[in-house]
Amino acid sequence: MKRIAIIGGGISGLSAAYEIEQRRKQGADIDYVLYEASNRLGGVLVTEQVEGCLIEAGPDSFLSEKPAATDLCRELGIGDQIIGSNDSERKTYILVNNRLIAMPDGLMFLVPTRILPTLFSPLFSVATKLRMAKELFHPPHASILEDETVAALVERHYGREMVERLADPLLSGVYGGEADQLSVRAVLPRFADMEAKYGSLGRAMLAARKNAAPSVSAPRPIFSSLRGGMQSLVAAIAPRLTPLNLRIGLPIREVQRREYGWLVNTDAGGSSFDAVVMAVPTQSAALLLRNSVPVLAQELAEIRYSSSVTVGLVYDETIEAALPPGFGFLVPRTEGKRMLACTFVHNKFPHRAPANRCILRCFLGGSRDEAVLDLSDAEILSIVRRELDDILGVDAEPLAARVYKWRGAMAQYGVGHLDRLERIRQILQETPRLTLAGNGYSGIGVPDCVRTGREAAKQMLGYLGYPILA
Ligand SMILES: Cc1cc2nc3c(=O)[nH]c(=O)nc-3n(C[C@H](O)[C@H](O)[C@H](O)COP(=O)(O)OP(=O)(O)OC[C@H]3O[C@@H](n4cnc5c(N)ncnc54)[C@H](O)[C@@H]3O)c2cc1C
Fold first, then answer.
1. Which pLDDT score, from 0 to 100, does residue 216 have?
2. Is the pLDDT of residue 380 over 60?
3. Distance between CA atoms of 454 and 73, rounded to whole angstroms?
4. Each residue's pLDDT tens digit, 236-263
5. How far is it, in rounded angstroms, from Cα 258 to Cα 431?
6. Within 6 Å (CB) of ligand 1, which residues are found?
7. 112/241: higher pLDDT
8. Quick one: average pLDDT of 437-464?
9. Average of pLDDT values for 454-458?
10. Intervals of CATH 3.50.50.60 along the chain
11. CA nearest neighbour of 210 among 222, 202, 199, 218
């Protein structure tokens, strides 16, 4: 019987374990052990019940258009618990000169596709609006061959204001990263392709909309989540795994190459495996592989991570009057605040709060403010409350507050990331029986992690001679 070690019990590692367990149930003579350093499974997926409200400490949802998470939920029998975001209320604001300004209708990520709402929006200066009109005549650009930052591409099309007011806050919301650092080809590959083909991003978006097949069904909500919170995904996978195969609270210290495969070392001793799935952040993977595959470790160590802090605040319904309708707001760096974003959770997912409660979820940290991680919870709360007062005029005492710190949890795909992935792929080809999963490679979201986890398991099963099933 062959044995596979899975290192890391976040959603990536759990998805890999689930895949192998399924194969076992179908009769494959295969064994696995999943190692998790902390004393719980799920990694950054953590949900808490507070004051009758559901607070997410890490991810609160996943993009509906990426099927891996939804498919897994259905396989696990929790498809009926999938809920959609309340898109009729979807409005997002940007803080400009300490005023919340709604993002105009028709913005697709940051490309304006409707003239009037953009023309009348106070979000952009006249100069930027003129740039937007001129952008429709932008000539094709051969960035398909080279990588560059998101900021460089956006600035070329729409100017610096668009980078500061939209691209940067949107990216810090998703990646905890900066438009001046993140790779356009890794983060917004569609934009680079559109530019190469059409020149103008505006014209490309309009063409894509025109060519899209008319939808007969109701539009899918943009975000999906689970009625009981994201941790219910973990709660649904864990009982399907064999308890004896889970080593929780046991960090791996090193992974050593052996002729037969790998020796996986913990403080309690080593275990031999035929194959290893590394489902930990790339920085941890680099440490574990530093002696056995130093060239790989070096590439992995160069993928940077940022940290984030989320703060969940529960209020009674009286603060509702102070909130504009919508999902929340983003804070550009130029506003000089520490808060990066705030979600009005009771609007985005009304199931998460009773009618007499409001939940605000605030984000801090990111690659520009790692220092916030070193503050105490009380200091972070006081910053958040002061800034909520400044921005929304909400100075009420919350009924409950929770601060969650996630150090080094968000991978940052810098310029050249895709080339690095190609080098990693080549090294792995020469290092059989080892594979990688997680948010450091081809997508940071939960569906990407589910996908990479399952693919990694399938790859190792295939390598060990277990037939690939459909
Ligand atoms: C605050 C926040 C908000 C987010 N919001 C969203 C969102 O709304 N939607 C979305 O799709 N995505 C979101 N993401 C991203 C997404 O949640 C993550 O990318 C994903 O959950 C990462 O899963 P993972 O299993 O790869 O890594 P992790 O969850 O980091 O799990 C890795 C696990 O490996 C363990 N480990 C590390 N080293 C070792 C070792 N040596 N030995 C054993 N175990 C080890 C760790 O303890 C950890 O449990 C968010 C992330 C954060 C932090």
1. 62
2. yes
3. 13
4. 999 999 999 999 999 999 999 999 999 9
5. 11
6. 7-13, 35-38, 43-45, 58-62, 251-252, 279-281, 284, 288, 308, 310, 406, 409-410, 438-439, 444-446, 449
7. 241
8. 97
9. 97
10. 2-44+233-303+413-463
11. 202
| Distance from residue 305's CA to the centre of ligand 1 (Å) | 11
Residue 279 Cα, ligand 1 centroid: separation in angstroms?
9
Architecture (CATH level 2) of domain 2-44+233-303+413-463: 3-Layer(bba) Sandwich (3.50)
Location of each CATH 1.10.3110.10 domain in the chain: 107-211
* Position 108 pLDDT exceeds 90: no
pLDDT of res. 467:
75
**How far, in whole angstroms, is CA 332 from its chain's centroid?**
19
Ligand 1 pocket: which of 446, 448, 455 to mutate (most atoms within 8 A of CB): 446
Atom number, ligand 1, closest to the C-alpha of residue 287: 41
Class of domain 107-211: mainly alpha
Residues 264-283 have pLDDT tens digits of 999 999 999 999 999 999 99
Homologous superfamily of the 305-412 domain (CATH): Protoporphyrinogen oxidase, mitochondrial; domain 2 (3.90.660.20)
CA 91 – ligand 1 centroid, Å: 28
SS3 content of the chain, % helix, strand, coil (to 5): 40, 25, 35
Q: How far apart are CA 35 and CA 278, in angstroms?
A: 10
Estimate to the nearest angstrom the gap between the alpha carbon of 28 and the chain centroid: 33
Ligand 1 center from residue 215 Cα (angstroms): 34
Bridge partner list, 111: 108
Q: Give span(s): CATH 3.90.660.20, the chain.
A: 305-412
